């Protein structure tokens, strides 16, 4: 996504991605990675997404999340983690102030 510094939405749902580690622009406000067989999200993927408002991670194959994965997502209002294989979540995982909702079903 180099050279695309100004886009704000990225929808990659249902693309059979097994990994995703691209450097994303800080202008991104909406990111959907739902319904891809991604087992792990690198903390660095979200590290510069301070303007991210909506993050869709449902239907992945996530088994765990790094403790501080969302620490730089200061604008995050909606987070969908439903339909994953998450068993344990660190109590400090959701330190950010979500203004809308978290879906874990």
Automatic annotation (TrEMBL):
InterPro entries to which the protein is assigned, alphabetical: Leu-rich_rpt, Leu-rich_rpt_typical-subtyp, LRR_dom_sf, SLRP
Q: Keywords, A to Z?
A: Leucine-rich repeat, Repeat
**Which Pfam families does the record cross-reference, listed alphabetically?**
LRR_8 (PF13855)
Could you tell me the superkingdom of the organism this chain comes from? Eukaryota
PANTHER family per the record? AGAP008170-PA, INSULIN-LIKE GROWTH FACTOR-BINDING PROTEIN COMPLEX ACID LABILE SUBUNIT
Protein name according to UniProt: Decorin
